[in-house]
Amino acid sequence: MKYADEYRDVGLTRPLLQELQAVKRPMRIMEVCGSHTMAIARSGLRGLLPKNIELISGPGCPVCVTAQAHIDTMIALAKHPGVRLAVFGDMFHVPGSHGSLSTAVASGGQASIVYSPMDALTLAQQNPGEEVIFFAVGFETTTPGVAATILAATAMGVKNFSVFSTHKTMPAPLHALLQDPELALDGLLCPGHVAAIIGATAFAEFSEKYHLACCIAGFENVDLLSGLLLLARRITAHEFHLDNAYGRVVSWQGNKRAQQVVAEVFAPVDMRWRGLGMLPQSGLAIRGKYRQFDAGKRFLLTIPEAKEPPGCRCGNVIRGKIHPPACPLFGRRCTPETPIGPCMVSGEGACAAWHNTVLLS
User: Fold this and answer.
1) How far apart are CA 336 and CA 313, in angstroms?
2) Quick one: how many helices (H) and strands (E) in the chain?
3) Which one of 22, 157, 198, 306 is CB 3.0 to 4.6 Å from 69, fit for a cystine?
4) pLDDT tens per residue across span 228-257
């Protein structure tokens, strides 16, 4: 069956790729989502496109856009007596101002890798003598699961579980980026996972306000090529339109139940983004009625000031100003084995994607 699936994929992608390769008009397209960046790198698609179609990575890697100060707070929490931090695996090696979470654990800190927020809640139930804090990163895709976990903790009366929320919402950084005339984008490949939650309609304003072609796409090769081809056709025809090429997953109104759960638990707040600074109403904080699960209030945390690592240009990569190889540290001092910035750590980071595919191919 693997051969049959591969044969089917080739049969579907070849005509799409051939039409894209015939495009003559220069165009700059940003793939907003980190999962798109990873999928494009894995498929080798960047190298198959004509030189006049430039793909630019955007701010859709949640680990990459987590502010340095929040990384430092995460590491400090792991060192707090009686606390066990619960994190996703790609947070373990993100460099803070002084070491990483992995080095904090090596020197006596407490942290466990989990695969879902519910795993963190289970960890709290299994370790009643510890305060378990889930360090929550992600966009609209992962927020419903965290909200549902807080509701579950409320129902079960778990007292030793809390969440440190750095959750962010996707429209805000796009508005910040698109107000920069130097970026000069022609189109957006919009994130399929986020759109599945908030709905395709949420991205319509970018076509209308910024005169861009926009397309929501999935993550298989056929999805990527279909989305890019729709964008190329719209750009060539000077049509500022939003297309939904991921209709099997994304509806125009999104997942109403997930939206309701998030609205019950979280409220919009200003949030600091790496590379973009403080963006108004771009983050999500736990509402007062669930205050007992807000680690920031429960432990009266003070978020420290923090500077970016010297020489690291992750911020410019996130803003679409440069491709990763333009960073002087890329592939030299900064590698997946010895990362300087988060874009080289996360599986969705542009630097890691370029290093593991483009540079080594």
Assistant:
1) 15
2) 15, 11
3) 306
4) 999 999 999 999 999 999 999 999 999 999
